Amino acid sequence: MLLKIIYSLYSLMNLSALARKVRNLLSTAFPTDPIVISLLAKIDVAQAVAVQAIGSSTKQNSTAMVRSADTSRDNSYVSLRNHVSAGLRRENADYRAACEALWPLFEKNDTTLYYFPDGEETQAIESLLTELKAGDGPAHLATVNATEWLDELDRDNQAFVAAQQQRAANRSTDTTVTDAEALKQLEAALNLMNSVMDSLSMMEAAGVQAVATELNEYIAEANANARNSKSQTTEEIPLN
Predict the structure, then answer these.
(1) Per-residue pLDDT tens over the stretch 169-204
(2) Ranges of the chain with pLDDT below 70
(3) CA dihedral 204, 208, 209, 214 (to 10 degrees)
(4) All domains in the chain, ordered by first residue
(5) Among 123, 146, 196, 210, which is most buried by a count of CB atoms within 10 Å?
(6) 1 touches 201 (CB < 8 A)
(7) Of 154, 142, 153, 158, nearest to 78 (Cα)?
């Protein structure tokens, strides 16, 4: 009767919004039905947990701090990488030779390392920094005017690690339920909708078909929005 909610696409905020619309519709259509009232009570409990998780300022601020630090180090890395890559085309022989010596180090550590999971990206950047600072690396960097650029990447990578450590420290003292647990509770409550609607249909409750149609419209729209939101979280940074 009801469309499938594709939970894997949903953020906690998106699923909470859908649950709120479902609750409002069911409470208006079947205000006195005992099985609906029981379902609404379960949705209310799960919604209260979700609101607490979404509204945790400590968690939000810590995550925002980490993501901002990650963006900064990505920008520092990409700008340095593109600068060296562009130098491979310079006519100036000394400049080009320096870039030709530096570029294999970027390739060795993966020129798209910003796509790695956070921990792996940190390790790859640290490896690159170590190799760029060794041997003739500093001289080559000086030739292509990139010494300060390297220092910025080092600084931004360390800032990211510090932000991660601070978030971990905040989480150790934060009793707010995790997004994953809040999502799990909301999913369990919403999954009861199918059996409730089946029961109402068998009892030939007034208006059940119209409610089912409206619920399907909500679910279809929410699935589409969740899919769009998820697809927008990955933006490719081009190699120039």
Answers:
(1) 776 665 567 778 889 999 999 999 989 998 998 898
(2) 55-61, 171-176, 230-240
(3) -170
(4) 7-56+187-231 (no CATH), 57-173 (1.20.1440)
(5) 146
(6) yes
(7) 153
